[in-house]
């Protein structure tokens, strides 16, 4: 139902350039949209962030690189309001699944996890690993229609939080991708310039949803706290909550500012991923303090805080997680190689 509302409001094509029939909005505006959505439904905001970043990336490539191959996809998003799915949860730098060369294309076998929005999706933007022509494994990038007979949703999404994202597994059992539909071939297991673009554009959008979750938890906690007799301890908890929230908001603004510099590279990835760690750390802390500030009433599901407490935990798990992110930042500072830090 929420996806139908997003379509009706024109938000599906919000990031498509205006010349192709979209809204022409940049990362800053799209982030604000997702942050606001998260005030009302965390799961809708996060799942829609996965579509939104899959639109924003080719839009960026069109605007800043005049990449002609992305034009048909962008036009189709605007004309048909199709929903793009991301398999980023299982398709980070290393890629996943196998591609077998057949006449005229590649036969794909894979199981993609964390495919948020799967039940509503039309086109899965994904990858598979091809052992190649003797030069080593290559990761192929392509889209697969969700209505293919060789594509099936495996309903496994029974999770702690973000329960409404429909982040089921997607099983690809022999779908053939034509040669012409392979958008990119890259060396497996190391950073590629496309992933520097992806990281710089996608993560401010994904983490906008988590900022919105923390903001809504704060607002609920304040309303509950105002109904209680004030004391110094509760007042301090509210102050600590707002301080942590401000940290998340400031870190996210820095992420957006980095994206708007339009200079994707190793340096922008470092800044974005530092911001991603800080947003997660401060947003989780803010929601934990919201639970305390609201007192025992926070434990009731009717208050809405326990759901946000569960949902905010998802901020821990997107790449680069805290360990690889720290290694990446440390390697950048010390002048060490980062091409295989992911």
Which key features would you list for this structure?
single chain; 342 residues; alpha+beta; 9 helices; 8 strands; 49% helix; globular
Tell me what the structure shows.
This protein is of the alpha+beta class and about 350 residues long. Helices cover about 50% and strands about 15% of the residues. The protein is built from nine helices and eight strands. A four-stranded mixed β-sheet has the order 1-4-5-8. The chain has a four-stranded antiparallel β-sheet with strand order 2-3-7-6, with no helix packed on it. Strand 4 (about 125-130) and strand 5 (about 140-145) form a beta hairpin. Helix 7 runs antiparallel to helix 8. The longest helix has about 35 residues, at about 195-225. The mean pLDDT is about 95.
Distance between the termini: 36 Å
Major sheet strand order: 1-4-5-8
| Overall mean pLDDT | 96
Q: What are the secondary-structure elements, in order, as H or E?
A: HHHHEEEEEEEEHHHHH
Number of strands: 8
- Strand count, sense and closure of the main sheet? 4 strands, mixed
Estimate what percentage of residues fall within beta strands: 15-25%
């Amino acid at each position: 139902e929420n996806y139908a509302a997003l379509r009706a409001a024109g938000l599906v094509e919000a990031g498509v350039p205006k010349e192709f029939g979209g809204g022409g909005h940049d990362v800053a505006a799209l982030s604000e949209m997702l942050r606001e959505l998260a005030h009302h439904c965390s799961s809708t905001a996060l799942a829609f962030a996965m579509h939104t970043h899959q639109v924003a990336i080719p839009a960026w490539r069109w605007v800043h690189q005049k990449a002609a191959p992305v034009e048909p996809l962008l036009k189709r998003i605007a004309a048909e309001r199709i929903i793009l799915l991301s398999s980023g949860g299982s398709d980070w730098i290393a890629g996943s699944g196998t591609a077998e060369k057949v006449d005229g294309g590649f036969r794909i076998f894979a199981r993609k996890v964390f495919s948020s929005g799967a039940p509503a999706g039309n086109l899965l933007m994904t990858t598979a690993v091809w052992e190649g022509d003797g030069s080593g494994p290559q990761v192929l990038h392509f889209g697969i229609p969700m209505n293919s007979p060789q594509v099936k949703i495996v309903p496994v999404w029974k999770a702690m939080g973000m329960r409404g994202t429909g982040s089921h597994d997607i099983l690809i059992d022999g779908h053939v991708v034509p040669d012409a539909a392979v958008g990119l071939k890259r060396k497996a297991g190391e950073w590629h310039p496309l992933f520097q673009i992806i990281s710089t554009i996608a993560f401010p959008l994904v983490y906008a949803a988590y900022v919105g979750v923390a903001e809504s938890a704060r607002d609920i906690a304040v309303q509950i706290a105002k109904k209680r007799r004030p004391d110094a301890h509760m007042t301090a908890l509210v102050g600590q909550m707002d301080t942590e929230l401000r940290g998340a908001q400031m870190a996210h603004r820095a992420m957006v500012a980095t994206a708007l510099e339009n200079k994707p590279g190793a340096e922008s990835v470092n800044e974005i991923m530092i911001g991603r760690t800080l947003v997660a750390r401060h947003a989780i802390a803010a929601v934990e303090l919201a639970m305390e500030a609201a007192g025992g009433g926070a434990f009731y599901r009717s208050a809405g805080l326990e759901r946000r407490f569960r949902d905010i935990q998802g901020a821990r798990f997107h790449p680069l997680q805290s360990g690889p992110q720290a290694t990446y930042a440390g390697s950048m500072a010390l002048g060490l190689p980062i091409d295989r830090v992911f």
